[in-house]
Design brief:
The chain is α/β, with parallel strands linked by helices and 278 residues long. The protein contains twelve helices and eight strands. The protein has one domain (2-277): Alpha/Beta hydrolase fold, catalytic domain (Rossmann fold, 3-Layer(aba) Sandwich).
Length: 278
Amino acid sequence: MFETLKKLKYGARVLLARGGGQPETIDVAGRSTVIIHGGDGPPFVYLHSTLGEAFMWFPFYQTWAKQFKVYAPTHPGFGASAGFDRIDTVEDMAFHYVELFDALGLEQVNLGGVSLGGWIAAEFAVRWPERVRKLWIAGAPGLWVEEEPLPDMFRYMREPAKLRELCFHEPNSAMARTIFPDDADDERRMKGYQALTVLARLVWDRPYNPKLAERLRRVQCPVLLVWGDKDRLVPPSYGEAYRKHLPQAEMKRIPNCGHLLMFEREKEFVEIVANFCK
């Protein structure tokens, strides 16, 4: 009963937040890119994970929008964003985003993301360091830690219970079951298929970039690394690996939190990122 109430409460928060963000389709060098944005203040760009959580204006966007102009674009290959036929690597994603920022007139932004989005943000920052005011990376792959190899996501994409275990500290919570339900509808199955397609293109041979570690020295701005201390998908040792190559970085671990920080420990995660970017 208590878990059901928590689920209903979050659903109500989602409904209340939805009016805060405005969807728009931007032409990026002939590629239509869907973006949702809202708020006022310095530009703040959120790059989503393989969940594709830019398809609606979530409560965590609404909270950030009280201090920033929040932009949440949808990656090529997700939702209705086009141009995936031109994407072969995470580097290609980074080039897509520099062209999106040009189209939006964004000269310099607070940039970050969760998981895949954090990796793309890092790849962007090493190529165009002058375009990033502050960089934050949460639960991101991109580097490789030999002692803790990443699990094979392709094995588990059809196993909701295993996905909950990998992505949540509390895999049986209402939130975990909301994100990865046992009885997914057609829309959720389609999103899962899109995620598999993108992952297969980007990381089938190698779920990291062997050149990224050396290139991180090019990042000039302040850096925040945020990790759930119980992240089983991309363990905190990957955050430490980033910090090794980013001497200016500070690392924050969120207690009792898994991979999807923005859902499992939303309040702590949003505050940590907002305080850093202010």
